[in-house]
Amino acid sequence: MGWQMKKKHVLLFILILITGLVFSACNYYTVPTVSEEELAMNVAGTRSALATQSSVETMIVQLEELKNQPTCPVCPTCALPMTPTPSPTEPTMEEGPSVITITPIGDQNNANCLKFDYLGDVNYPPDTLMKPKEKFTKTWWVRNSGTCTWTTQFKLVFSGGEVFGSQGKVSFTQDVPPGETVELSIPDLVAPPTVGTYYSYWLIESPYGNRFGYGPNQQWGLGIKIIVTNN
């Protein structure tokens, strides 16, 4: 039994040794593997080489065409084209604000310069009855009781009450020296559409912006009083 076991071991060792010699003697060829990235780089390189070759061929054709063209003649005496010089433009002057010249009216610092006396209503006295939306022109009779002349730069200006559809100011149509009388009118007035009693007050304004009326301290304005009725 002992000999048979030893014999088996020897045979197994010999078999292993022979197998190792066989594998070491065989030279197997392993196929190399290529990654996708390496494959893409190879393709790109090939395309670049083809594009470069095409560009070179195109340049050769263009050079051949230029070589066959006639030579341009040289003109040493030809003058260079003149570039027109723009003419200087005159600077434009901006127009300044218009200046209003005020006609002298006298010593406006004198307390008696701007005064007037109310002499009466030429038409439409107080409590005049009117229809709704009736048109009218109001006129007063006054005297220049001051020491300064009223020029056409003086105005009648609205100071309170109902404006009756007017612009709120009317320029004088004539000069009025001290002591003279004049009729002052406001045209294109319109009675209100609603029934009722309405008032309106007007002052005189100088070119310097001074407003004045009549009476004590020249504080009373020329007045309008109408009654709008359907009767």
Q: Note the run of SSEs as H and E.
A: HHEEEEEEEEE
The helix content is 10-25%
Secondary structure tally, helices: 2
Structural class comes to: alpha+beta
Q: Tell me the distance between the termini.
A: 160 Å
Structure summarized in a few sentences:
The chain is of the alpha+beta class and about 230 residues long.
What does this protein look like?
- With 231 residues, the protein is an alpha+beta fold.
- The protein has a domain at 121-228: Immunoglobulin-like (Sandwich).
- The chain contains 2 helices and 9 strands, in the order ααβββββββββ.
- The strands form 2 sheets. Strands 2, 4, 5, 7, 8 and 9 form a 6-stranded mixed β-sheet that branches.
- Mean pLDDT is 76; it is low at 25-32, 71-81 and 86-97.
What topology does this entry show?
Layout: H1 2-25, H2 36-68, E1 116-121, E2 128-130, E3 135-144, E4 155-161, E5 169-171, E6 181-190, E7 196-205, E8 211-212, E9 222-228
Parallel strand pairs: 2-9
Antiparallel strand pairs: 1-3, 3-6, 4-5, 4-7, 7-8, 7-9
List keywords for this structure.
231 residues; alpha+beta; Immunoglobulin-like; six-stranded mixed β-sheet; three-stranded antiparallel β-sheet; 2 helices; 9 strands; 25% helix
